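The following record pairs a protein chain with its ligand, S-adenosylmethionine.
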Amino acid sequence: MNYRHAFHAGNHADVLKHLVLVNLLEAMARKDSPYFVLDTHAGRGHYLLASPESRKTSEAAEGVLKLFGQPPLHESIERYLRAVQSHNPVGALVAYPGSPLLVAQHLREQDRLAACELQPEETQALRELFARDARVAVHGRDGYSAIKALLPPRIGDTKFGRGLVLIDPPYEAQDAEYPQIITAVREGLTRWPNATWAVWYPIKQRRTLLPFFRKAAALPARSIWLAELQVRPDDSPLRLAGSGMLMINAPWQLEQAIAPALPVLQRLLGETGATTRLEWLKQPD
Ligand SMILES: C[S@@+](CC[C@H](N)C(=O)[O-])C[C@H]1O[C@@H](n2cnc3c(N)ncnc32)[C@H](O)[C@@H]1O
């Protein structure tokens, strides 16, 4: 397990993933009933853009940093930027929040987050980050096994009828990851059918993803769509051309908040040949 998210924090893939995440969390907060979030691959939760890892790749400079200082952008992008800015009270962007921190900042008193992370140093950082937040439980364990162990969520007397599972693995063993995701989501849907599932995936050569999409489309879910941002043509199996979010049972009309943001991200973050896509794999009845 070599992957460290510090090298990639705030890059174009984080922008897409976290923009969808923040808009999803705001949609979930429109109902009073409590929600539960399982972040299966949480990372360390907080990244400094001046760290040696971040400076080595400069990926944030080609990602989130390009969005700051622009004239006002689409509301769904502004929501995401406000969430990131709130971790930078002095102004300039020096800190970047990871997914568990973005979730935690949206939780209300009645909501809960379980964040799983397998790498011991990252887990320790996560535990320190949330040491004083009783709404957040950090698990140093495999995120896929947590789907079986923690769902359907029940804490004390509270049963959580709704919520989110975010699956954001490092795809170090690509071929193995996709079937594992499909198996985990299929199992999870039977355990917790009303949850939303959000799966991040990398795009190197998009056509190689088609079997994954075919299997995802056959999952027993009410609705499935995907949102993608490719910042460059997918002409190399080695280089990250972009990424996507596979959204299963997403809140009603979330896709309408995301769709107008995609061409803006393409214009601001993309090179020649950049593309975006919002596509239904299964429409709700
Ligand atoms: C892409 S990063 C997560 C980034 C984070 N979700 C965010 O958006 O800020 C993937 C993380 O998963 C961790 N990881 C790898 N395999 C795992 C597993 N089986 N279960 C839980 N965490 C795992 C890695 O150590 C890494 O920190």
